[in-house]
Amino acid sequence: MIRVVLPAHLKVLARVSSEVTLDLTGPVTQRAVLDALEARYPMLAGTIRDHDTQRRRPFVRLYACEEDLSHDPPDAPLPARVASGDEPLLVVGAMAGG
Amino acid sequence: MSRVRVLVGTRKGAFVLSSDGKRERWTVAGPFFGGWEIYHMKGSPADPDRLYASQSSGWFGQVVQRSKDGGRTWETVGNKFSYDGTPGTHQWYDGTPHPWEFKRVWHLEPSQTDPDVVHAGVEDAALFRSKDGGQTWEELSGLRGHGSGPKWQPGAGGMCLHTILFNPADPERIVIAISAAGAFRSDDSGATWRPINRGLKSAQIPDPEAEVGHCVHHIASHPSRPNVLFMQKHWDVMRSDDGGDSWREVSGNLPSDFGFAIDVHAHEPETIYVVPIKSDSEHYPPDGKLRVYRSRTGGNEWEPLSKGLPQQDCYVNVLRDAMAVDSLDSCGIYFGTTGGQVYRSVDGGDSWAPIVRHLPAVLSVEVQTLP
Predict the structure, then answer these.
(1) Which domains does chain A have, with CATH numbers?
(2) What is the ipTM of this complex?
(3) A41 touches B at CB < 8 Å
(4) pTM for the whole structure
(5) Which segments within B167-314 are labelled E, that is strand?
(6) Three-state DSSP class for B345?
(7) Cross-chain residue pair A94–B59, CB shorter than 8 Å
(8) pLDDT 10s digit of each residue in chain A, 98 long?
(9) Which residues of B touch A43 (CB under 8 A)?
(10) What is the phi-psi region of residue B194: left when phi exceeds 0, alpha when psi lies from -120 to 50, beta otherwise?
């Protein structure tokens, strides 16, 4: 079970009030988690990653285990504690805009 | 008795203002989608309870919302706006080629006849259409592909397609406008397009009478005379009597011929409204006085309308999609400001009163006249 914490605006969009949990069968990577997230919550498609390029949107960051994973390759394994469900993957709206 | 519903898009959410036909007492619903920019909301003429809203954010991109109950509840629909084929390039601010990149939906225009059909004008400028109530979108790529696209350049607000006008007398005719490319027309339901900018003069571009490159801010028309078009350009108020084939200036005695919004009285096709704005770069009313100007002669001769509007220390702007009219017997005129006020007039503009005073900056105002 993978745990994902969404920023407030995306919680509202997805109509969830707390962290979401996802079941993955294959390797636990950014791409796999976000694919599963968008499959469960289609309204989130395009809000974290660009529809066409699948690149992370510039002001969205991905943190876990006190590390900034935003620049990691999308197919790199996420930390073991995320894969085990001990730690959540944090989707964060960057502080920007003054 | 008839009712009106005013759909207000702001920098921080959407609001729905409702009143009976007297338009004196109002209820305010919202904010919907709090914290998101709502560039535009509009209802379907074929089903007034079907609304569409463009919701966007610098962080999370574009979302499209749909309501089937007049704005009480909303559901997300499709937000995938993929340019047809290889997007190609337009001009960047420095004149270099820049790839087309989708940023947001500026304007949603539902079909006159089918609530599931809606057009979207987007930045970077392109026209999309959905035939399934907003679930999926396809580009009408003949617009970008007709040949002048590589010469288009963004205005200060971005390269946005902000105006979509259907022609009730000729359903295959569509007029659109892009800042800062100009106006374009299709006579085959959006398959092919051509620029319609003859007569526009823009001193800010190298060839003031170029085929494209004009910063058109908004175009309005009256449904009974759809080939008469009124345009607020970056500078100049313009008029066309031939569907955009040619334009002539009708700025007349306006204190500033710069502005964004323009609209036409619901029952008097030669009565038009603008809000003159001081520019370049100030973008507030001349002399700190918020005045709507009305022409009853289709332009050239303008009168200021100031009763009920602030006449000192007012430095708000009225953006291009932030003026609308209702179709009650005594035509109501509405506009919103970047200061968060929405004003209404129930006497064709002779007098004004605020419906709300303290919303976030208003980006768009649309009005539905309901039975």
Answers:
(1) 2-93 (3.10.20.30)
(2) 0.93
(3) no
(4) 0.96
(5) 174-179, 182-186, 194-195, 216-222, 225-233, 237-240, 248-249, 262-264, 272-274, 292-295, 303-305
(6) strand
(7) yes
(8) 999 999 999 999 999 999 999 999 999 999 999 999 999 999 999 999 999 899 999 999 999 999 999 999 999 999 999 999 999 999 999 886 55
(9) 63, 76
(10) beta
